[in-house]
Prior knowledge:
Number of helices: 11
Structural class: mainly alpha
Amino acid sequence: MIEGACLLSIGLLKKLLIADQLSVFVNLGYGAVPSLGFADAWMLSLAYTFQLYFDFSGYADMAVGISLMVGIRIPFNFNSPYWAESIQDFWRRWHMTLSRWLRDYLYIPLGGNRASAVATYRNLFLTFLLGGLWHGAAWTFVIWGALHGGACCLHKGWSGAGLSLPRPLAVIVTFLFVNITWVYFRSPDVATANALLAAMADPHFVAPVRLFAAWPLLAVGAAIVWLCPNSQTIAETDWNGRIALAGTFAGAAAVAALVATNTSVQSPFIYFNF
């Protein structure tokens, strides 16, 4: 009960205090992509990158927490994915249950890495391409899956050749790639995604819109992601520490929920769409 209450409260705080607040800026930005300049375009992409993480990981924390409170232990779904050192490492940490399903029911039945090198790359690429289609029958998801499949093939060849990057640089490169590909995941169509990416690649001045005001939330989100222990680590705290943490988080979540009921921010869980 204590572990479950702790995780449920953490998930609720992620959703209400960060994801839902960032959704305001994300919706605003995607409604005005043609008018965005360089700074606002990057703010928008980062806002969605953190919104998606805190929304979906909050959803998963709440599911694990509620299940524990009724005596059922289900798998964790996230393990600090933005700390990943490669795209392969990212998929070991992000939506881990889906990653294992894709491995067991697509990659391995296709032949996995038991065939030739060319067949292995083909199987890897097709797995991610079909993983993109799992999210929806749209070109944006096809491109998103293809980009991740191509990146995994590139990483496999890179690491197979004995090449590597220093860990801090590897984390930065992986995060930037994931951030850029989330643009296709979120955009309503390919044209919108391409327009946003073009703005991100063109450092010219355009008078900023309200998106720049998202930076305090982004700073908080980044601090939590890269400086704080994740939900799994907190849930594994010793009993005495867990009691104190559960009480603290539950109190904060209760206050946040009360505040949220009196605001105009209404944001369903992103993965309800899937």
